[in-house]
Amino acid sequence: MTDRKTTASAPADTAQDSSDAQDSSEAKAAGDARAAGDAVFDVIVVGGGPTGENVADRVVKAGLSAALVEGELVGGECSYWACVPSKALLRPPAALAEARAVDGARQAVNGGPDAAAVLARRDHFVSDWTDDGQVGWLKSAGIEFVRGWGRLAGERKVEVRDGHGSARTLTARHAVALCTGSAAALPPIDGLDGIGVWTSREATAAAGVPRRLAVVGGGVVGCEMAAAWNALGAQVTMLVRGDRLLPAWEDFAAQAVADGLRADGVDLRTGTRATAVSRGDDGVVTATLNDATLLECDEFLVAAGRRPRTDGLGLETVGLEPGGWIDVDDTCRVTAVEGGWLYAAGDVNHRALLTHMGKYQGRACAAAIAARAAGEPSVDGRWKPWTATADHAAVPQIVFTRPEVAAVGLTERQAQRAGLRVRVVEYPIGNVSGASLFADDYTGRARMLVDEDRSVVVGCTLAGPGVGELIHAATVAVVGEVPLDRLWHAVPSFPSISEIWLRLLEEYGL
Ligand SMILES: Cc1cc2nc3c(=O)[nH]c(=O)nc-3n(C[C@H](O)[C@H](O)[C@H](O)COP(=O)(O)OP(=O)(O)OC[C@H]3O[C@@H](n4cnc5c(N)ncnc54)[C@H](O)[C@@H]3O)c2cc1C
Ligand SMILES: NC(=O)c1ccc[n+]([C@@H]2O[C@H](COP(=O)([O-])OP(=O)(O)OC[C@H]3O[C@@H](n4cnc5c(N)ncnc54)[C@H](O)[C@@H]3O)[C@@H](O)[C@H]2O)c1
């Protein structure tokens, strides 16, 4: 599986080797637990997705002991039902499209992707939905693994139930970090329950290609899954309630994705909602649409956003409302719980629902826990190891459609809303030599937003083949707040698509 950690870190401290910085309530909690024969750790992480893994890894590297509680598969949604399998489905058709876009290579491409081989490669990337490798990594990293569903049982306590109904209680000396992620939200469509619709899970794990697939939602999941299954041979209809895809993105990027999907044969219907669905004895799903027409399909994918996985997590035992997103400060500490021992990182805090941002928050959260455990007096400030400052200023994202779109920082609308005096600079990426070498008739567009008061880039959006690999340069510029007259000296290599940076700066007037 990609991004699987293979290097072992130092073994965790035993529960008895506590840090010097225990306050009296920490000591009491540990004492009570020992008396009851329960396990005590410096840090308890609930949820073993990418975020939880990073919290546990980093606190252990900082010298604390950690237990990680996971009810399903270590690696989380990302590894088995989200990022990894979806990109495994999207990459083979993308590779074919890239070859087709280049004369000389095009002639060697005969036919479309081999769906069975694509699905087999996807299965390989998700390790056939087993987590032995990840569990092995936890052990090598010195993290105590506890398989089971965790729930808070009051201050610093986590009760864990395994699949056989037995329970144990873990106690944290310093911190509990909730990293339980999110699940697909189901919109209010009559008949949805019990007819076996697809969510992101089925859409990334399906064993075969449906003949006809309907997709509800024009967000990232909807766009990527429509692109993937269409490329693998399904006849795809997208039902988008608004007038455009990707509502949070610059209009031109959303338009590029819509144009690409339509050019590839997706029936993209905006201003369209399903009001009711049913599945007949023959397995066919019939959706009633808002214009009273009917749509038949073999699978019905709901990709209408996420809900937090906080039901049954015992939030009420610490005074929080169950079922909601968990508010945190920039160190991922839960603001509404006294004592400063509870943290929440990744999707569950709703700051940025992306794996790389969850991992980043995990690193910040762990640094904050370790610093506070060591008695560091001021665990705050911007751009510190313990603060997830980029959540506010520089969240990068790539949508792996055809064409790709990628963005970081603010859109023009967001900059205006924030009251910034920005100048918008645009350039057609196809005019860059590297782009025309990369693909014949390359079509793409770049937009850079410059904060005129500080002369720094505050946002960048790119649309076009291969732009995903370009966005990190923009992220560095935004996070580094690199003044434009210094950015001018970051010379892009010729003939790469990165020369878009030179063109944007020239367009700005440098
Ligand atoms: C189809 C799809 C594609 C995506 N593609 C991308 C992409 O390309 N790039 C990207 O950056 N992001 C992508 N995302 C988003 C990404 O998957 C999430 O942001 C990421 O998985 C969040 O990580 P997490 O660790 O916070 O939560 P999760 O990955 O959801 O992990 C949470 C873990 O906690 C466990 N858990 C939950 N409750 C309990 C409990 N009570 N006790 C014990 N364990 C518990 C769960 O079993 C799970 O393993 C995609 C999402 C979807 C749906
Ligand atoms: N490549 C990537 O980075 C990637 C890929 C997939 C998912 N993700 C992340 O996963 C998260 C979830 O993605 P998503 O696409 O499910 O959510 P989303 O919030 O991106 O999009 C949800 C879409 O569903 C629509 N919608 C909401 N309620 C609806 C209703 N009742 N009826 C019809 N349509 C409705 C919205 O208008 C929107 O278009 C996102 O935050 C995204 O960043 C990232």
From TrEMBL:
Keywords: FAD, Flavoprotein, NAD, Nucleotide-binding. Transmembrane segments: none annotated. Binds 1 FAD per subunit. Residues 395-501 form the Pyridine nucleotide-disulphide oxidoreductase dimerisation domain. Coiled coil: none annotated. One of its GO terms (biological process) is 2-oxoglutarate metabolic process. Residues 8-24 have a biased composition (Low complexity). Disulfide bonds join C78-C83. Its cofactor is FAD. Residues 1-32 are annotated as: Disordered. FAD binds at K87, G150, T180, G181, S182, D347. The keyword Coiled coil does not apply. It comes from the Bacteria. GO terms for molecular function: dihydrolipoyl dehydrogenase (NADH) activity; flavin adenine dinucleotide binding. Residues 41-358 form the FAD/NAD(P)-binding domain. NAD(+) binds at G217, G218, G219, V220, V221, G222, C223, E224, G305. Belongs to the class-I pyridine nucleotide-disulfide oxidoreductase family. This is Oxidoreductase. It comes from Wenjunlia tyrosinilytica. The lineage of its organism: Bacteria, Bacillati, Actinomycetota, Actinomycetes, Kitasatosporales.
